[in-house]
């Protein structure tokens, strides 16, 4: 079961005469809540970075479309101008495509990096959850043994 920070804050344990140290359990819960909130913030930051990168990518696609439209307008001019400017336009387009491709490659690499970081954080979160669950289960087992010993 995935706990939200509120779930963890509202979590209570049964007490008995030979019970556990409530301060220690509360300290553990506070650390779990703090870590969990940290993971949530980091996840949101990664999503924000991804959104910014996607906006940048769209900007460069718009630039590429503008360059393609400029080529169409240039092709509609007179035959004489077309002969003189064709070579220049072709070079501009090639340079723009190279730049656009570089920008796209850089953006894709950044997106991949963020996805990898996100996946690592997700794995760390699952590992943390498993450790927390194991700790809680072991504490419950100790309580059970203490109850059985009575």
What fraction of residues sit in β-strands?
under 5%
Number of domains: 1
Radius of gyration: 30 Å
Total of helices = 3
Q: Which regions contain 5 or more consecutive residues with pLDDT less than 50?
A: none
Mean pLDDT score: 87
Summarize the amount of helix as a percent range.
over 70%
Order of helices and strands: HHH
Notes on the structure:
The chain has 150 residues and is mainly α. The chain is built from three helices and no strands. The chain starts with a helix and ends with a helix.
Secondary-structure map with pairings?
Layout: H1 5-9, H2 22-75, H3 79-149
Helix pairs in contact: 2-3
Can you give keywords for this protein?
single chain; about 150 residues; mainly alpha; about 85% helix; rod-shaped
Task: Please sum up the structure shown.
The protein has helices at 5-9, 22-75, 79-149. By secondary structure, it is mostly helical. The radius of gyration is 30 Å and the shape is rod-shaped.
